[in-house]
Amino acid sequence: xxxxxGLSITQAAARLAAREISARELTLAHLxxxxxxxxxxxxxxxxxxxxxxxxxxxDGRIGRGEAASLEGIPIGMKDLYCTAxxxxxxxxxxxxxxxxxxxxxxxANLWDAGCVCLGKTNLDEFxxxxxNVTSHHGHVTSPWTRAxxxxxxxxxxxxxxxxxxVAARIxxxxxxxxxxxxxxxxxxxxxxxxxxPTYGRCSRWGIVAFASSLDQAGPMTxxxxxxxxxxxxxxxxxxxDMTSADHEVPDWSGLLKADVRGLxxxxxxxxRVDAMPEEIERLWQRGAEWLRAAxxxxxxxxxxxxxxxxxxxxxxxxxxxxxxxxxxDGMRFGLREEAEDLTRTxxxxxxxxxxxxVQRRVxxxxxxxxxxxxxxxxxxxxxxxxxxxxxxxxxxxRVDALLTPTAPSAPFRIGEKMDDPxxxxxxxxxxxxxxxAGLPGISVPAGLDxxxxxxxxxxxxxxxxxxxxxxxxLALEEAAGFATLPYGLGEAx
Amino acid sequence: MSYRIAGGTGEWEIVVGxxxxxxxxxxxxxxxxxxxxxxxxxxxxxxxxDAGLPGMLPVLNARAVEQAVTTGLGLDAQxxxxxxxxRKNYFYPDLPLGYQISQYQEPIVGRGALLLDLPDGxxxxxxxxxxxxxxxxxxxLHDRLADETLIDLNRCxxxxxxxxxxxxxxxxxEAVLYMRKLRTILRYLGTCDxxxxxxxxxxxxxxxxxxxxxxxxxxxxxIKNLNSMRFVARAIDHEARRQVDLIEAGGAVVQETRLxxxxxxxxxxxxxxxxxxxxxxxxxxxLLPVQLTQDYVDRxxxxxxxxxxxxxxxxxxxxxxxxxxxxxxVAERATADYFEVTAKGRxxxxxANWVLNDLFGQLAASGRTIEQSPVAPAxxxxxxxxxxEGTISGKIARDVFAAMAVDGGDPAAIVxxxxxxxxxxxxxxxxxxxxxxxxxxxxxxSCRKNPKAIGWxxxxxxxxxxxxxxxxxxxxxxxxxxPRAE
Lengths: 493, 486
Description:
The complex is a heterodimer.
Chain A: H1 9-17, H2 23-36, E1 43-46, H3 48-63, E2 74-78, H4 105-112, E3 116-121, H5 160-167, E4 173-178, H6 184-190, E5 193-196, E6 216-221, H7 224-234, H8 252-255, E7 264-268, H9 278-293, E8 297-301, H10 309-324, H11 342-353, H12 356-369, H13 375-395, E9 401-405, H14 421-425, H15 432-437, E10 441-448, E11 454-461, H16 466-480
Parallel strand pairs in A: 2-3, 2-4, 7-8, 7-9
Antiparallel strand pairs in A: 1-3, 4-6, 5-6, 5-10, 9-11, 10-11
Helix pairs in contact in A: 2-3, 5-6, 7-16, 10-12, 10-13
Chain B: E1 5-7, E2 10-23, H1 62-74, E3 82-83, E4 86-89, E5 99-102, E6 112-117, E7 123-135, E8 139-141, E9 150-152, E10 159-165, H2 172-189, E11 201-211, E12 221-226, H3 229-248, E13 256-261, E14 266-272, E15 282-283, E16 290-291, H4 294-302, H5 308-319, H6 323-330, H7 333-343, H8 348-366, H9 377-389, H10 394-407, H11 411-417, H12 426-439, H13 441-449, H14 454-464, H15 471-481
């Protein structure tokens, strides 16, 4: 493996600044990796020419002493972010041929910070999925395999392409979006760091909407420090998004410290779910021990409405999605399947354009909003959502952060759980509650299971308190010392 | 003004409620920065959001909120400090998002009232149920190409106020009075230009009938998209008669949406209740609830202009105008303002006459609005001053006004330039009078028998002076020199 591929952003930035390496060299190394690992299908659209042009521009700025915070850092952009002049698919056939004329706020922020665009990463169709198996552009394969078993595993989802790209050292970082766990769960599955900030921290403008009240952009990186750097560049108030918050963005990176002395860390008892592998339970306890050893106080807490979170999420998210996806009607852009009249043109375009999982959620969402069902489902779900948020508010009066597993299982084989949507939905049981409450969360790689697959721990924090979340995550990262590369990566380019 | 339909089995009355769609006067659309200007080339006033592109988000136009609150205050209505936007979901090509952003459960304005000015000089209050903000859809053009429908999104996203009345309108005429009064108030407030031809003000009418004396409401039909005052009256009248005929023939009214065919003067079924869409309303998660402060509402209230009802009473009290003249003057704010500038410090009744007769006549003849009047109110006032000072007579003033209407300009200057100054000089008029008496002994004689014969002499003096003689002075001179009737 090219040694440049092993660098964190922090390390690469230092070497770029010292002119020991050029942005062009760094980008070329990653473009080579992209080619070598094309079989992972991490990218839907590769943009090598743009990447080199951007890297050269970065070199120019570095030479003139005008380097921005992420100057010359090659990253992957989840193909849910609209990017000007680059096809944007949302992993769906229905956006075939769609090339935005506009740039999403968050991707624009990253280009402004000096990032180099390697390409658009694969994802579950419209970010609906937990294994990156619903993309019209094919499933993503995790760079990880079980010890002694070559069966292809899922990278998690929906930001599976981003996770695979970062884990396979194709990209130094990538963007994800998290609606119910779509950053944190794939980060856990691929042994990287994934952070969802507080709802409203990053602008949603220009990101293809799945469920507007839940969608948040966030970074996927290999270290906690890199996550802080990336999020720093991505976040900020945007007057084009009314749900973006006019909150000052603290200097997370500068203030980042592994010091957890005196912090009270809650262990929510409701997260001990049935049928959770013992290895995950043990890792969770180990994580608690690490924090205790570092000077934090561990407290068992209760979030009594946790068990209602998944059903609540699977009413609210599809309801919003059913409406958000109405604009894909074949009239103005993307796929159009002509038929004898308007209604049939709508039906055929949407039937051909949307995959099974998207259709399932549009149907669920339409149903729960229908006259006669609205109160029983949607209104009730909103009430439960408030209860779930109140659970967190109450707990955060007593503790500074919560520690949980990120996912209830290790990565599974591609094809598994495909015939059982509910089993698939259970992947997000630990990430969905905080999404419903709009709270920040991060997944940190914390160890391996018995088959040598990565497992993640999740830290949740108060709204707008990303700093504590990052600090606790850093303490875990240091204690875990997770350094394992995906198998086989050592021999690559 | 009781309106009755004489059926074969007895008398019927009608119950009407109106849902008015008024385009909010704003420079940009309700949720995007695109222009609201009328008449642009198709699809030139379209923001990315209006075209429903992926990832685009609505941003609420604060000016539209202000206009809606101002309208609510003008309708003496409850302002809801908390209101929400919801999505009304349905598919149509002129609705790119697949949903209309509207207010459903919590509108920005609640109950209010509108006062109708009845022809007999009385008034009738009609309740306003609510006012809410919503985004308009685009326009489908079915007749440009043989087999295809074209879409123009210029209108798409333009802010509308839907103003819903209580079912308290009892005749087609009252419906028109309601629309007129609402239009007047909206124009006073500057929140809607009320232009029905451009579709900036249109209404749906809910019509039902019941036997006179009955309390319960009949089944209603909704007539969609009435875009002229005349159509409002005709459609309601036709629909009410259709319902009476139907019931008297043993049928029953079916709740449905109907269209008015203005060429045939009748309503036609559009869709029944069963075919009605399930709009799946839910709060738009892209928009936070609208939270207003009482202070904000109070500030808008303090800046409200004087409204027609108040102005009408003031004109009657302060200027001694008749109800009829006051009504005519306050119907448009521009007219009322024009009148007040003209009347200030002058004979208000005279000013009202000049505005309502001479000015209106002139504007009607030249097809202008009062805003386009070639005669400014200060100039008309100056003309009235010339009459009051005796510089010109009222009759000459009409000629001066006609000249002002063509070339504009200061009346005093026109009087000077054309030599129209009134002759009030006895020494100039006396020789004329003397000569007339000398030359016309027969006419002098007739004055002895008929006191009205003096009028012949007045006419002759006017003729001799080109109408410029001061009529009062001429009268005095003639009275002194001619014999009195016996």
